[in-house]
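Quick log. Single chain, no ligands specified.
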Amino acid sequence: MSYVFGAVDNALICGFVLAPGRAGRPIGLAEALSWLAQGTEQTAEEFIWLHFNLTDTTAEKWMLANLSLPPEFFEALREGSRSTRIEDASDNLIAVVNDVAFEFSFDPSEIASLWVSVSARVLVSARVHPLRSIDRLRQAVKDGACFGSSVELLNHLMNDQGDVLVRIVREATLQVDNIEDGLLVGRLQQKRGELGKLRRVLVRLQRLLAPEPGALFRLLRQPPPWVTAHDLDELRQATEEFSLVIRDLSALQERIKLLQEEMVAQVGEQTNRSVFTLTVVTVLALPINIMAGMFGMNVGGIPLSEHPHGFSIIAVIVLGFTAVAGWLAFRKKD
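-> predicted structure:
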């Protein structure tokens, strides 16, 4: 029995009926059910895209009740799987795509997942947090972009994700360039913390994206029978683009690591200079402290206590020992 929604429905973010050479037509859940009930004869060239908001608890219930989605899709939703992949499940493509939030400020918590199920006639996507790539795809459909198949829609989503990641790498590179310029002129204030935060974000992005090329390669070898050769070529290009992005992420992480090591070296050098200065001051003050301690005990038999030039003699002796100590301290400074 179908799950009935109320008058105000927040579970569906957007829905479209698409066909080759024709702009997408917006639909709601009731119209989507009517379209699904028509059968393939009347809608042979058409396919639909339904995008759900998982923060609404009725979204998963509606999908379970009204859509013939493979169990692997719901298992991925419930497990909260974060590893990026696209796999074949009962002639359906199940994709877990990692993306970034709208106001991405290089915080690891702003990376979230999008779950997608693709068949020849139905593409279903679901997310918890608003994400950039899927919103770019929704805007493209609203602006009248035409898609020939559901896999072409998925390819567009992946290309949008690749563009977002390339932009993130460029912004991260600019930040690293500014930090490196500051390092060259000796400005280290708060730079180590910024580099550490940036490196954590890039490591997380790479960890979440790294499985995707391998998963796509396995899919390309044994695709579902309804996927066309053109769509497979597009998937192959998406694989290559993600490989390049991951390579750029690795190179940028290595550069950040070298900068962190350079900062540690500079901080260590400054610490060594401070310790050396403190040691020299201590050594130079040692003869004076020893003499002051000995002559300040106020016991009998203190030498030169009755001598008219006793202070001058002691001062010369202290200065002599201080000069020797200074010479010993500075002779191996280099």
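The first strand starts at residue 12 and ends at 19.
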